[in-house]
Records
---
Amino acid sequence: MKKQNSLINLTGTKHKLSIFKNSGYWFILPLAIIFVGLVCGTIYSQIGNRYDGFANIGIDFKGGSVLTVEMNGAEMQGNNREANYELIASILGQNGLSAASDQNSGSDAIIVRYQNSVIGDNNIAIDYNTSEMAEEMVAINNTVEQQVEDAFIIKYGPTIQIKANAEMINATASSDLLKKAALSVGIAMLLMLIYTAIRFDLFSGIAALSMQINDIIIMLSFVIIFRIQINSSLIAGLITIVAYSINNTLLIFDRVRDNIKLIRTQNLKLIPGEIVDTSVNQCLTRALFTSVTTLLTISILACMGIKSLSDFALPIIFGVLSGLYSSLFLAPSIWGLLMIAKQKNEIKKAKALKAQKR
């Protein structure tokens, strides 16, 4: 018993959490979230026009149109901004279109994105994203441009200077963007795996990479569940989470490495579960404080009421929560399980070698 508590005695760390003993239970929550995400996505894909597929894919990846409305003067600023957006959205609705997202461009322009899908008679959507329907979609966009300009002139008077311009984003461009986004995330994860394996050990690299993949999947599961739009902002969020979630994990593995050195210096038995529990509890307070501080800041952005900010902030909130959970419970548990498997394999090899010598 004394040998089992040796690392605790050396470090003086109180075990507030028993991590490794309950390692099998920590994997239940992420698996449950992934399962709920799959179920929700399946349900959404079966409902039809109301949800438009398994996930809410934005025009950055699905293809669509971008309408930029520029006005000179103060008409775009202050309280007029929401009224102007509602006017644009109503004109899109009159043409069977639906605004997917909006954002400001400086102080005198609003950018509205919408899918090239027109709701026609009997509430049936007609897809204009194909090359065969491109000319018809251009004609619809030209009509929207003219109607928006006329509506703003009626609202603010003939002296106003206004320009509406709608451009199509085709499927080829969106596919290229998706490939580049996946490549950038993949390269970032690969470099972090190499760094972690060199800086610490191979098992730490495997555990860290597994948790990065887990954080991305959990983040996407929440995106599907809450129908958050998958667009270029989400890709920025993914890269942010890949970079952020590794911090707490590396902090814990740094303590793991130091504790292993301490054990070897004292010629004590290396017990993976004891190392995991001690290392996590040493980093627990710091990990909680840094994550809570980040969550408070990102939550302010999510509560601003601007859709483009919410589409960026909400996935990051999900990713930060997942990153905190995985760095405290999952990554150390995976490292401990791999170490135990290694120890058992070494014992097995030693017994086999001993049997051969006999």
---
Amino acid sequence: MLLKLAQKRPVHLVLDDAALQIQLVGILEKFTNNIKSFNNVEEFLSEPLAKAPVCLITELAMPETDGITLIKLVREQGLATPIIVIANEDDGVYSAVQAIQAGANDFIELPIVERDFIERVNNVLIREFKY
């Protein structure tokens, strides 16, 4: 699923954690080459989105603007893009609930396990695109 959808529209990563960004790009590159990475929310928002990404993956804990704020901003712009939030071990159940209430479609905790990550991304895309 991810490959077919991402051939037309990119997967966007908004991650402050460089190591996590490298890990997720490495995983996603096995399925698509249409990946765009941003180091922070400001960088992501500074670029016009001609076409909404097939999927937006962000983390909760980022300096300046956190993942919850990003989710709200994307939803306020009317984008129905599926959003997956990555949380570290310090983010608890309350953070997961906040992310879902803000409009996230799924919540994944660190550490990332490749097979589980791809399965979760595919499940979100299947649900959201009725694919």
---
Amino acid sequence: MRQKILDLLEEVRKIEKVSKEAADKSHYAANEASGGLGASYSAAGDAEHARNSANLSIQKSEQIKKLAEEIENSVSLEDPKVIKPACFILVEFADGNKKDLYLVENPVYIPGFNLISPNSLFGVSLLRKGVGNYFFYTSGGQVFEGKILEIK
């Protein structure tokens, strides 16, 4: 059972619902704001701001929906033997700090979950590695290295 992935999916579904509601509300507000534009530059600016805000909300909602679909498609699979999207990874850095990570194709900010892309420097250093393997990558002139402790 991929409990860590199920936990992530549960949280993403909650956020997906809230995000969809926010996108719908901002889209409605943008339509309302553009209803009586002729009065002033200020009203036109308000309408433009409302449209931009609505577009951002809709994009975020679509990203979260993609993430939910990706995770849902991976839940029924067996625990992976090597790191690939979508999976949970526990790593230990050389300084002894441990970190829970989720490698996913469509990472977005989810409070309490560290989602990383397989295209990021860190993600590339982890791909196709198994438990007990070491990783390293360089970012901003710093070298990061550690060991993979768990994959789910």
---
Amino acid sequence: MTYAGAGAQIDPPGTLRPSLSAASVLGFCSIPQSGVACETGQPRSVELGLLTDTGMGIQGELVWAMTWTNVNCDLIGPQGRPNPPPTVNDATGCDFVTFVNAATGVNPEAIRGAFGL
């Protein structure tokens, strides 16, 4: 999965296995002090993969990627990320993906944009 315009992608994890389950990582969303950025409600998907982000200097980190669709377009992330195209509805036209390290529970990155997920 490539997130257009974000410089991030998720590749299959191969034989790597997570220390933390998807359910435990999803549970971080209900704990305000967990430090994991989440949207409200259940994500559309929770997938295990290897995160690479050229802009953040992340290469092959085993993460759980939690994806919410049809959310607002308030941009987050490092400077330089592109704005959504002008045809995107700012209230519901974006996707939000947060990545959680599958071993430590640390949230190295979250991205928001019109990825078309």
